[in-house]
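[job 0412] stage=fold_complex status=start
inputs:
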Amino acid sequence: MDKALKNKRIITAAVTGAWPKKENNPNVPMTPSEIADDVYACWKAGAAIAHIHMRDDEGNGTMDHNKFAETVKLLNERYPDCDIIVNMTTSGDIYATDETRVLHVKELKPEMASFDCGSMNWLNFGLFLNSPKFLEMCAQVFKDTNTKPEIECFDPGMIGNAAYYIKKGVLEAPLHFQFCMGCANGITGSVKDLLFMKETADRLIGKDNYTWSAFGVGHSAMEVMYAAIALGGNIRVGMEDNVMYSKGVLAESNAQFVLRAKRVIEEFGCEVATPDEARQILGLKK
Amino acid sequence: MTWGVGFFYYRCPRCGRKFKYAEDLMIYFEDSFGHCPDCGVPGIYVKDGPRGKDDNEYYEVEE
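[job 0412] stage=fold_complex status=done
writing structure:
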């Protein structure tokens, strides 16, 4: 990596996810219009990447490619100055088919998209399925569209799965990991857990073969954010993972989370990466 | 994709208060996980899962 970029940290804003609704926090963006406006506000606040999901008209997670297209169109039309990296989910609805999970990637060719590197229970009442067949197909779509996979790992086994896919030629290093901490049925969200994830990636992938980011859901959010910065990682914030800003306080906006992340990064002595700097750090080719 | 915090939702058998505990705080609360914050008695399990429409009806016990 370029020496000038060593001190830069990327903020990803995960603005809506597939779950929280207005009843949980009235400030969660739900429609393409709201999501586009929120992404722009996060970019203004310092986010270099927007990780986006879509909602149907009832507010449930959907992989409707038209919603993704509408959001991107609104973002481009309303905010031509915004150069944020758009990172689209491929896991926005646990009932979606393998095909609908990647249709928007094929059509819109985003710079980044998520790649959930294994299966797990969705809380205690469903399955979050990422079959070998789906992952190999997904990786091929990413190669065809020149989309950088964001390898989401909810436990160390998923890092091992990423190593397997490198050996097999399905994934190509350098990888970019998102360590998803504190999710039910995944690894818990402590400093020790995050260090273990990083050390596992160091062993299995190789220190110079990956970049990484992390976030903590719920009560682990702050601990993981501070630890990620201290360990040299990047961070993800936003209402996909936390609708509360602090104990008993609902978040006012996604930008509020980004501004806090920016303050923490700068107080630590680092700088917040611009989208173009993030493109260099992640090796994006578009 | 994440789904936020998972909760255990309870009702107090003594005072009737509705309350919830985040799953990730099981380690913190140990044996008092699920107890009414006012009466200290074990709550009656109602359900568990992510935040739902009625989430605001349940007080979140955090300390």
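[job 0412] summary: Chain A is about 40% helix and 20% strand.
[job 0412] exit 0
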